[in-house]
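Hi support team,

I submitted a single chain yesterday and got back a structure, but I'm not sure I'm reading the token output correctly. Could someone confirm the output below corresponds to the sequence I sent? I've pasted both exactly as they appear in my results page.

Thanks,
R.
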Amino acid sequence: MKPRQAPADTIWFCIRRNAVARRAGWIHGDSLSDLRRVVGARPDETVEVCIASNFRHIPTRRFARTFYPRARGLIGIEIALGGDLLRLAPTRMVAANLGFERALMRFLEEREVSREDFAAHGCLRSFCAEQYLLFSGNQCQLTKLFRGGALIETGPTFERQFAVELADGIEGWMLSNLSIDGSLPYKYWPSRGSQSPADNAIRRFLATIALARLGELRDSAEIRDAARRNLRFNLRRYFQPIGNGRGAIVEHTGAKLGAAALAGLAIMENPSRDEFTAELAMLAAGVNSLVDDEHGFRTFFFPGDRDGENWNFYSGEALLFWAEASRRGIPHAPTLERCTTVFELCRKRHYRKRNPAFVPWQTQACASLFAQTGLRQFADFALELNDWLQTMQQRDGVDPDLSGRFYDPLHPEFGPPHAASTGVYLEGFADAMALACALGEARRASSYERTINLGLRSLRQLQFRGLHDMFYISKPERVQGALRTEVYDNAVRLDSAAHALLAAIKLLVPMNFGRQLSVE
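Hi R., thanks for writing in. Yes, this is the structure output for that exact sequence:
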């Protein structure tokens, strides 16, 4: 059986009042100029619109080739079986954060039909759709959308305003969502209007660092107080002595090198650092105890069978903690000679099996070590790493809202694209550009500038900015200024905001290397 044909001017509408859907459906042949009247929208209601076209039959065996995650929000899906038909417009799927696979499974579960039966008797169609918002008011205020939002445009040079607006939005989100006890929501589902039970200590301490740096940037007593409260909450929740003068950040999954290192960084940079000198000393001892003569660092205090996991992340986080402890003259900081030895071990292992996750943390550590020593091996390695990472930024040949993110489709083992990845990569590129400028490498600095600007464009595209991309958000204060995971996944995660904010701060106040020259 084939589903009934739909004319090219089929229109999906959804009337929303205060973001809540009041009435929705499909109509035919009505123009946008008269649509509000036709669907009966009140002056205080916004109308979400998709004009469907180019309906195409898709063999059920080719489902995954057509209805993949990146297509969500750009094409719609029509599912038919027997006399039942479900047609989902792209903006409806964006608003519900609904993937194609889940939409099909719901359809089958509700009808108690197996995937095999659907493959034999069901029908699928895809369709394109022009997307619009008709805002509230008596006038037809029309806004064209792309994947449920407005596109951010960019030029070839660093646009400081991108970094300013990015930081301003995240600041507002963090301050409005910081609880009385000092906690920030780790993960939030905007479409559900609810908080996820998931948790991650590393990502929570990233936000602590970001708040502390933001407080310094703004010279704000309010933000400094927020950073204090957040640090106290996180240390009360996760810090534990683990014996032999060592401390660790303990979660139900174990105790990670990276968590101890970032907690130590968070203490060093926090206005309440003097309150936690004992914890800092124990965290430093803990990090020191995981030094490894072959790999630079082991990665887990416990459980032992997880040791070695996430080495690309945790080794750089630990080396950055060491470098900053040395720069700040913290007791128990390793010598620069020891930092150099471990750096060389990490570099050697990276060359054996390269991974982009290694780049931003090692770049920041190398920048700090170069600032202290003037040794060109630190600067040269950081620049080499970022030259390589540049090749993974998507630019031309992708959907316009994806431009600037980092993803290598030839190496899916490097991980999926993600707001947090783009944010942390930009942290590294910010230091790499500062290094290139300090060393007089103008061409390289210009290349990094282009990469940074495209990356900022990507982050601004992911940021909840206003009515044009929050028309379906019932609790806007929970998301405004935060970042989606991807343009086709609106889940909000704390580390996405933290990395983006840290990158923006580094770009607004670049690292100063003075007149460092090589001493080699």
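A quick pointer for reading it: Residues 442-462 form the longest helix (21 residues). Let us know if anything else looks off.

Best,
Support desk
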